[in-house]
Amino acid sequence: MSKSNAAFNLKGRGILGGLLSEPKPSAQITSDSEQESAAKWIPLEKIQKGTFQPRQYFSQAGIDRLAQSFKERGFKGALNVRPLGDDTYELIASERRWRAAKQANLKEVRCLVDAYSDEEALEFALVENLQREDLSKLEETEGILDLIGAKLGIDRERSISIIRTEGHSDQRGRSDVAPSEALKQIEALLTHFGIELQTFRTKNLRTLLLPDDLKEAHLKENLSYSSALELSKLKGEQQREALLAEVLTDKLSFREIKERVRALTTRLRALTTRQSGGDGAVSVSLVLRLQETAKRAKKLEYLFEKTQKKKRLEKLLRELEALLEESESTGE
């Protein structure tokens, strides 16, 4: 993700004019000396956790190191907060520093105070986090979708649908179909963060479909995005979980993961062939495939609202139901 642009410095630039608001005074303060003069010291007990944090996971080891640094050298940097009244404040950004300060038992911390509205608070927290180098691909994806919702008023399901359909390369290549205003705004926002629309459509959105165990490993165990996608090719849950445990324990490389996945997939195909037996026999693996297909269909339910796909799916389901009913009645 590009870090060259200032988080909010976009007003008046083409289609993004007004999309991201002008920075708060504190958002422009970058040097320690500027922070020192603009900030105020606030008792830590008067600052409560905010509701605008897009990060889903904080490394405890990183917080431990920062807390130790605060104990040895004092608090560095500043928290972004907004006043709530009654001499209390709500955290807007820098939750990692806030957690480390609490762990270090500090009495007060340096803060930059602004009267953020709810929308401004969400925007600031999202942009601040989206520009971090260590943000996971899943957090980046969900943060972008949240920002689209906050700034463009397009909810998550609709924005995903717009990106998947209107943003498809085949659709974009048609001269007789002009992109909608919503797609233009979404693409402009992605461009600001150095993300191409097609990259977001084909790569980022795939993280939303990862099984829960791979999402957790991606967030908490530093499992790379590419490794998570490769492991997701294993549709058998037990098989995937066993390999994931091996990957995390032995720190397997992406090349090693790819080789293991290929070997397991080949073995499963061979097992399926052996289990098929004779005509009309239903293998165990076939039932597992049906179960996994149902899980995938549930995750992609919003795609089946399209008339053509919905009709095709309904036809296939009727055929499957008829086949099952026939098997139940005949016992074959």
- Domains, number: 4
Helix/sheet category = alpha/beta
Mean pLDDT: 79
CATH architecture of the largest domain: Alpha-Beta Complex
CATH class of the largest domain: Alpha Beta
Q: In the CATH scheme, what's the topology name of the largest domain? A: Conserved hypothetical protein from pyrococcus furiosus pfu- 392566-001, ParB domain
Order of helices and strands: HEEHEEHEHHHHHHHHHHHH
Shape: globular
Count of extended strands: 5
Radius of gyration: 25 Å
Contiguous runs where pLDDT drops below 50 for at least 5 residues: 1-23, 25-30, 278-282
Helix fraction bin:
55-70%
Number of helices: 15
- Give the CA-CA distance, first to last residue: 57 Å
How much strand? 5-15%
Short description:
By secondary structure, the protein is α/β, with parallel strands linked by helices. Helices cover 55% and strands 8% of the residues.
Descriptive overview:
- The chain is α/β, with parallel strands linked by helices and 332 residues long.
- The chain has 4 domains: 25-115, Conserved hypothetical protein from pyrococcus furiosus pfu- 392566-001, ParB domain (Alpha-Beta Complex), CATH 3.90.1530.30; 129-208, no CATH class; 214-293, no CATH class; 300-332.
- The chain has helices at 32-38, 60-73, 95-103, 118-130, 137-152, 156-165, 169-172, 181-192, 197-202, 212-220, 225-231, 237-250, 254-275, 284-299, 307-330, and strands at residues 40-43, 47-48, 79-85, 88-93, 108-113.
- A hairpin with a 2-residue loop joins strand 3 (79-85) and strand 4.
- Helix 11 (225-231) runs parallel beside helix 13.
